[in-house]
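=== RUN LOG ===
request id: a7f3
mode: sequence -> structure
chains: 1
length: 359
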Amino acid sequence: MTEKQLKNIVAEVAPYHEWQKQEGIPIIRGRCVDDLRTAELGPWASKGGRGAFVNLEGTEMSADAYIAEIPPGGSLNPERHVFEELIFIVQGRGATTIWTEGSRKQTFEWGEGSLFSPPLNVWHQDFNGQGDKPVRYLAMTSAPLMINLFHSLDFIFNCDHDFRDRYSGEEGYFSGQGKNYAERIWESNFIANVYDFKLQEWQQRGPGTNASFQMAGNTMAAHVSEFPMGTYKKAHRHTVTAHLILLSGQGYSLLWPDDGELQRVDWHTGSMFNNGHDWWFHQHFNSGREPARYLALHWGSSKFGGLSFSCSKRPSGSVSIKEGGSQIEYEDEDPRIREIFTAEMAKVGLTPKMPAIKR
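=== RESULT ===
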């Protein structure tokens, strides 16, 4: 039996995949969702709305995602679960109510571009605040890891333990207030709008700005990056892949394993893709006419410690590979990288704004 056949057998019997089959909604596979706003969904009885799982190649069994839709003027079913969840509102406006057994309910409102995370195993219910159109959101979860680890859906969805170190009924938990406790790192349980959140300069990976978010005491985290038209990021790699949602701009990304062929993913506003398998190099290119801003959802809280699925210590992603890190500086990259980018910019009548490379 080949390694590929063995992996297919394991994938078929994994408790997480069995649960997905049980839910009966479409599953989007591959490397990219072309547009989260128009992706095809199906009836989701247990959720009370419509939805689809998103199983992007390379992230299927560590962190995964789903798209959910709340009907006009309606709501989804109340739920709680022993896995973390980061929610990004793709379209619409509404509200979420949270509570624990015997506690007073709290409700907060959100709109397009909002980012938040229901605390671990806290009851929550989502409501559509519009009577004429559905709400659509994207959620990344740690469900694959947790369901496969415990292989007990009853425990995952019916556990009565309160994680009070994460949430104990505090007033204003989702007020949007927060604090900047380290460089570019913002701790808050609610970001009202990631489209216009103020970012800070960060040049270690090339031109652009950045902000990282720590939410709800999670080990999962998020960040937003933006880089100017006519520029691209330095190639880098890390242990755990991320889901990237394009908030603005048009371009492409190149992905490759060690000594492997370049793989290309084209993206635009509304697209979602991941950055390849564990420890693949990836590099993002803005070949459009406006700044490119993306939201990345991933493992690795800088406050509570990164979560790695590697048994060995990996080098830093913003340090040159020549210095023991895992980032390729512009002067060390394959000459094809700049050639491809120059050709892509020419297609839209533009020239790159990148400085000349000194080799």
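=== NOTES ===
The mean pLDDT is 91.
The chain is about 15% helix and 35% strand.
=== END ===
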